[in-house]
Each structure stands twice: as structure tokens, then as C-alpha cells.
Prior knowledge:
By secondary structure, this protein is of the alpha+beta class. The protein is built from 2 helices and 8 strands, in the order E-E-E-E-E-E-H-E-E-H. It has helices spanning 94-102, 137-153; strands spanning 2-4, 19-21, 30-37, 54-56, 71-77, 83-91, 106-107, 121-128. The longest helix is centred in the C-terminal third of the chain and has 17 residues, at 137-153.
Amino acid sequence: HYERVKNDVGSKDKLVVIWFRLLCERSEFMTDLVLGSTRPKHEHFFMGDKDGYKIITHQEMRGLTASDPTFCIWFKKDAAKTRHICDIRISYTADDRKNLKNKNYEMLPQCLSKFGLGYANVWILWTSCQILRLTNSDRIEKELKDYSDMLAKSPN
């Protein structure tokens, strides 16, 4: 199931929509995200394939003409990490930024205008799949057995 990020990230000439997929399989969780340029001499060029990153880009984001954006997203999946991305949002205004910060989103450092897109920022929300053991499961199991025994003796 794919979910559309609420705001687009396009410029006045190009509409760019980001979609992400909700997953349950830990090995498929995105554990890192880097925004980069598709132009090798750009200040934000990133060659992530050497470090295990995979690239997402669109044919119209490769900067083939002077007016084309030069935007790509590099992501990494590492099943050994417990922290992963669970949501992505875009902010345009100070109110957007304040709201996302209050909801514990983390802003990626580059403004999208650096890549020829609109003046906006990408925010990610982290979560953890680590399960904390807050109670003693043996104790809960014993209580359930005692309760079942009690109900068996007196069901009313």
C-alpha cells in the first residue's frame, strides 16, 4: 500500500509528488535517507551506491536541460538497525516547520530549492521496531491461568 506525501515538492514549472510504501517486513524499512543532486559537480552531489544506498529519481529530475531540477533521493535499508523512517512530510512555511518539529519530525538539512525545486524542506519521522519488555511474561501467563481456573470453577 502506497501513501502520498501530503505536499508536493515541485517548482512552478514541474509538479513532483513523493509516494512511500507502508511495510511490515523489517528488512524493507528505510533506515537512512539522503537528498542529493544528479549533477556530479553540484555541492550536494552524493554517490551513495558505494555505501549501500539505492537511488530514486525521475527522468525529468536529472538536470538534462538548464531548467530541469537535479534532484534524487538516496535511501538505505539495514535490517540490523532498529530505528527506521515511518513517515515523510514536506514543509513550506514557518508554521509547517514548527508543527512538524513539535511532532518530533527531523528536518533533512538541504532545502529543496538547492536542487531547482520549490523552497521547501523534507522532514522524516523515526520510529523503532525494538520491543521493550515492560512486564514479566511469566507473571502474566500465571495470572491468565489462575483466572481461567477460577472461571472454570465458577463461570457465573
